[in-house]
């Protein structure tokens, strides 16, 4: 990678991150970089790019690489950006040797499972009257769309990844607001969901989460993102389990409050993730616009 010198002997480096699926992943990566003494680091959820400034790149960058890959992510160093005919910042190709046709097929299977069951679970939420199921369905849809964007964005420039992520973040945020608003309405006009149907869809969701990981396992050699996929799937499974527990509490207490409580928590976390995507995408777009303005004609 070409590292651009800056003032105060600090230099800027950028990496493409593979295996990052959510804002919590970005926070873990930033924490790993800071653990080796790099304070000025930013990881964009939108474009999956890590930018950091270091005083001693020959020493610091290998330490950062070891720290980040050690927690289950793959790093590919990006060359200095160039400006295309439209004034957009383009990245020179990074190492994509791990993106094989078989691996891309596995990712498409993951997209189909997540988006497909997300739609089914949303229908189940309306059918059973469960807000928690609707919120969990958003999580499925969000996972599927993030993976879908990751497939499409292979080889895209930074600005186009940011634009796509911004559209996706706005769309997912609108869905989240809709579910949260409907949940508030249900608080005012309480309606007990059908606990048995709610629990059935939640158990199936748990099974689908496990199945979604299986296609990626044959590709674990040479690609560090499987650990991240497992961690992400584990978090999803916790959400599924929470819906199952809520279904049991609804049946036990004959009250809709457990369902509404879990719905608010899941929808809130989902909206936080959507906002992080929108924030990072806007930040990336601002940075590429500034770089384009500074570039010579």
UniProtKB/TrEMBL annotation:
Q: Name the principal localization, coarsely classed.
A: membrane
Q: Does the keyword RNA-binding apply?
A: no
CDD domains the UniProt entry points to: HMA (cd00371)
Task: Kindly give the InterPro entries that the UniProt entry links to this protein.
Answer: Cation_efflux_TM (IPR058533), Cation_efflux_TMD_sf (IPR027469), CDF/SLC30A (IPR050681), HMA_dom (IPR006121), HMA_dom_sf (IPR036163)
Asked if the keyword ATP-binding belongs to this entry, the reply reads no
PROSITE patterns recorded for this chain?
Answer: HMA_2 (PS50846)
List residues traversing the bilayer. Answer: 106-128, 140-159, 166-185, 197-217, 237-254, 260-278
Give every HMA domain span: 11-76
Q: Which SUPFAM superfamilies match?
A: Cation efflux protein transmembrane domain-like, HMA, heavy metal-associated domain
Membrane topology term: Multi-pass membrane protein
Question: By its UniProt entry, which Pfam families does this protein fall under?
Answer: Cation_efflux, HMA
Subcellular location field: Membrane
Keywords assigned: Ion transport, Membrane, Plasmid, Transmembrane, Transmembrane helix, Transport, Zinc, Zinc transport
Q: What is this protein called?
A: Cation transporter
Q: Which organism is it from?
A: Jiella pelagia
